[in-house]
Amino acid sequence: MGHGLAGRTVLVTGAAGGMGRAEALALGAEGARVWVADLEEARGRDLADRIRRDGGWARSARLDVADPGGWRELRDLIGEEGGRLDGLVNNAGVSHRFGIEDTTDEDWRRVVEVNLSGVFYGMKYMAPLLRESGAASVVNVSSIAGMTGYFAAGYGASKWGVRGLSKVGALEFAGAGVRVNSLHPGLVDTPLLRSGSDDFVDESLRSVPAGRVADPEEIADVVLFLLSDASRYVTGAEMVVDGGLTSGGLYHRITGALREGGGRQP
């Protein structure tokens, strides 16, 4: 079933791999005009080529989301192609799993610049094109780390920041018909998740009631919903897609341990 996105222009950042790639491919299959933005220029071009081979419309552009100048250049490029932007998916991000004392000053700045400032620059510099649409949707990819306490200083702070900044955007752009929501994925089977040890993933899964990680395509389905008219009254909201982890993962883990140990259920 389609989402009514055919002919709409959508920009996806961090689109060359992981969730961004799945989102761009899904948008291409829907008939959207997809702008593939990524720091890895060659992989972005390859993805745009694939979308075109599959019969879709796609353009690629190199973008460092932490660079305001890069955002301004991309805004002008998209403007020359059509003058408006119907959807923006601020998907680009980096992982960093260290606490306050173990986080270097350099890593703190890098994580916050990419994960949070990149979202700010995206909304700031694409705002004129989004306003031109009259019914645009912005999806800012946060994390379950932006819904609960988290052990990683820079990552947790940046993802909470995305959640709050999305609400600012929802208020600021509502009059122009632009919706802004934050997306909070849980464990998703991407290279970013696997960038650490497998033990981290295996241990984390014990707290996921669904009992598995998500496929990137499952996250893309939710992104398409938020970009579509089916969510036209949804703005300033947090969309959590985590297999139940934040809703009751702690107790799922406790009751599971009790069952395994032969203990009495609460």
Automatic annotation (TrEMBL):
SUPFAM superfamilies hit by this protein: NAD(P)-binding Rossmann-fold domains
InterPro entries: KR_dom, NAD(P)-bd_dom_sf, Sc_DH/Rdtase_CS, SDR_fam
Signal peptide (UniProt feature, chain positions): none
Pfam families cross-referenced by the UniProt entry: adh_short_C2
Domain Ketoreductase: 8-181
Keyword terms of this UniProt record: Oxidoreductase
PROSITE patterns linked: ADH_SHORT
Similarity comment: Belongs to the short-chain dehydrogenases/reductases (SDR) family.
PANTHER family for the chain: 3-OXOACYL-[ACYL-CARRIER-PROTEIN] REDUCTASE, SHORT-CHAIN DEHYDROGENASES/REDUCTASES FAMILY MEMBER
Name assigned to this protein: SDR family NAD(P)-dependent oxidoreductase
Source species: Nocardiopsis codii
